[in-house]
Design goal:
Layout: H1 4-16, E1 18-24, H2 30-38, E2 43-44, H3 53-60, H4 68-78, H5 80-83, H6 106-116, H7 126-140, E3 150-157, E4 173-177, H8 181-198
Parallel strand pairs: 1-3, 1-4, 2-3
Length: 207
């Protein structure tokens, strides 16, 4: 159950924390960059890219605020690899279910997000909804929300920035990572072969 102090910390964080947005042209190491901040005491983040959140929010924001509990439950599915990272067979993070790796409490996440969406200002636009989701996830893994100064949004693809552009402020930080085009192609081919092989999608006889 959310304590009054938790509620105060959540409201204060959503008001004061800036946005820290990571963009990339692809294969530029932004997953590693995010992982460097995931456990930072002053950064709220999920455990994966939030590349699909824009489309998810567009498709499901009609549920707010009347069915915020249903919306929150759907977010759990959308951020499946954040809540159950040991199931990511494609990228093979090497995480076991027994590992104490950013373990999220689903009930705490849903309760927190429900509370956040009880205030209209937290679902007026897609950026606010995204911030709310990420902060609720950080709460669900036991982070001290009173320490949070930045909310990390790993959009990955540069074209996704337009989804939030109208609501960004001067205090927000945007980091764009790029790489030599030839290196990107080589890395992409190597890693996607590995991903497809992990999921038995890639046929090595076709080469």
């Amino acid at each position: 159950k959310l304590l009054n102090q938790d509620k105060n910390n959540i409201k204060s964080c959503l008001k004061e924390a800036n946005n820290f947005i990571i963009l990339t042209t692809g294969r530029a190491g932004t997953d590693f960059l995010q992982s460097c901040f995931d456990n930072h005491l002053e950064v709220a983040s999920t455990s994966e890219k939030t590349i699909s959140l824009p489309n998810f929010i567009e498709d499901n924001k009609y549920l707010l605020p009347s069915s915020s509990d249903v919306f929150a439950a759907l977010v759990v599915k959308e951020l499946f690899f954040s809540f159950a990272p040991f199931n990511n067979e494609m990228e093979d993070w090497g995480i076991s279910k027994k590992d104490n790796y950013r373990k999220a409490n689903v009930n705490s996440f849903i309760e927190c997000l429900n509370y956040i969406f009880s205030f209209e200002e937290n679902y007026t636009n897609s950026l606010q909804i995204t911030r709310s989701i990420i902060l609720a996830f950080s709460f669900s893994i036991g982070k001290d929300i009173s320490n949070i100064k930045s909310i990390l949004i790993h959009l990955h693809h540069i074209n996704k920035l337009s989804f939030y552009a109208d609501n960004l402020e001067k205090r927000d930080l945007i980091v764009v990572c790029s790489r030599n085009p030839f290196d990107m192609v080589a890395s992409g081919v190597f890693h996607w072969q590995k991903y497809w092989n992990n999921l038995n999608f890639y046929d090595y006889s076709v080469r």
